[in-house]
Known about the structure:
Elements: E1 3-8, H1 18-24, E2 29-36, H2 38-42, H3 46-65, E3 71-74, H4 77-88, E4 92-96, H5 101-111, E5 116-119, H6 141-148, H7 191-203, H8 209-212, H9 225-229, H10 235-248, H11 252-277, H12 299-307, H13 313-325, H14 330-343, H15 348-356, H16 364-375, H17 390-397, H18 402-407, H19 416-419, H20 427-433, H21 448-465
Parallel strand pairs: 1-2, 1-4, 2-3, 4-5
Helix pairs in contact: 4-5, 6-11, 10-11, 11-16, 13-14, 14-16, 15-16
Amino acid sequence: MSTHIWWIRRDLRLQDNPALTAALDGAQQLLPLFILEPEMLSKAAPKRRAFLLNALADLDTQLRRLGSRLTLRKGPARDALPALVAELGGARVFAQQDFSPLARQRDEAITQQLDLTLTAGEVLRHPDAIHKADDNPYVVFTPYKRKWSDHPLPTPADLLPAPETLPPLPANLTSEPLPTTAPVPNFPASNAAAHQRLERFLTGGLLHYRSQRDRLDLDGTSRLSPYLRFGLISARECFADAQATLLQAGTDSAREEILSWINELIWREFYTSILYHFPRVTRGAFREAYDRILWRDAPADLHAWQQGQTGYPVVDAAMRQLLAAGWMHNRGRMIVASFLTKDLLINWQEGEAWFMAQLVDGDPAANNGGWQWTAGTGTDAAPYFRVFNPVLQGKKFDPDGEYIAQWVPELAGLPPKYRHEPWKLSAAQCREAGFIPGQTYPDRIVDHAFARERALEMYQAVLQKY
């Protein structure tokens, strides 16, 4: 029997799945396999692990409808996979390529032992496909995007259909039980939920994306990131549906709204390319001179930031949203990252690690790229002198303080204009609102004006020296 293993990693879907399509070609027996890696079970963010496990349960349900099922084995994969192939008496393995450094090392080791075929799927354009005339990778987004856009976007007609039937499973195979866990609030982990969310966004939020995507108090983003992270929906599906909507747009303003989201999807591809070509970014700054910044060792300040107790309402609202939901609005991610690196002068890697320990959509490439952008240490980095003012950011992107009121309820009873600056309340206003400064809500842990000057001096010192 020609036995093929579909090794599922970050492609938990039946539709538009190149790895599954390749595995089906010529297979007399097909084994859908997921390997429970030790680090995933013990070290991944609890909500990200819960999302993954629930998504696996949903995929198993879909497979059973086709007469198959999901087989689970405990990792590490470099041990479990050869053992399984030996148990089967031989098999070909098909998987979607993963571009993170650890995944690439694992796949290279397995390729030395097994017949492993890696296919596309995580991104629309392979990192090796977008390069400069001298064959070097792009390290600036705009020229990368220009070259990336030389190729046409896919349309829904280009998507691979889900199979209607599947070959039988190999006989007498054991499977580990799938750990059960509660669902992640606001992120139902199913293929149907992913497509419902995309469809709602295409017919609603996408047409206002450019105008509303930075508003913390509005539901102006797709919130598809966890589904893309684990491949419940493919990047190609997102690009194809965006392209179809773009072709139907009747006005220039509508097209601009749609192109703005397409641009964000290309940023995701760019950060994946950076991680692929420069895996060292997981260990330090892309601009290596910035590894010499003398970051503060301030555990109390770091803890206050992590727990949303800095005394700056929009920062605390975003950090508390992260703790409660395992997700944060992208504008919030930029605000809190700027606060940690510029106001507190704490190493961006502390923030990167904290996000990965909390986020349901935690992705090594996007998370690293975003942190390095804000810290000014990355490729298309924000200039070192760009320091977000947390008060002004809050007023601009949460004008009535509704986002703050939701996540920092001790400030909800204040007049909207004071939710951003509760320290400006008069004594009489505090009594009237029952607000006790420093007790009802913490005092600011740092003065922004002072912190901004301190950060500029530190960055300038590094630039002048190196």
